[in-house]
Write a structure and sequence with these properties.
YaeB-like fold; globular; 3 helices; alpha+beta
Length: 93
């Protein structure tokens, strides 16, 4: 089930900042976003629901220390993925 990816303003800023520092990781981020749209629960993404202050938000892995935080939202008639932020483990948690 393919879902549309909706990019929030904080996600766009965080992605630009991260990719400016790590341009060699652009392909990894692109592939991860494609996989997330196609199947958010692909085992390679290590998708998991967060707890505590971030309860209700989901996280997936885009490599060793890169995480993408997102929510499942209703977009028109379909379910979409709202991308919230992107960064290292320490930056997003």
């Amino acid at each position: 089930m393919s879902r549309e990816l909706l990019r929030s303003t904080p996600f766009i800023r965080a992605a630009r900042r991260y990719l400016k520092k790590h341009p060699q990781r652009a392909d990894v981020v692109e592939v991860t976003l494609f996989m997330l749209a196609e199947d958010a629960f692909d085992p390679r993404l290590k998708t998991h629901k967060l707890k505590g202050a971030l309860e209700g938000i989901w996280s997936c892995s885009a490599g060793y220390d890169l995480r993408i935080l997102f929510e499942f939202v209703q977009h028109g008639e379909d379910e979409a993925i709202l991308l919230l932020t992107l960064g290292t483990h320490d930056e997003v948690y």
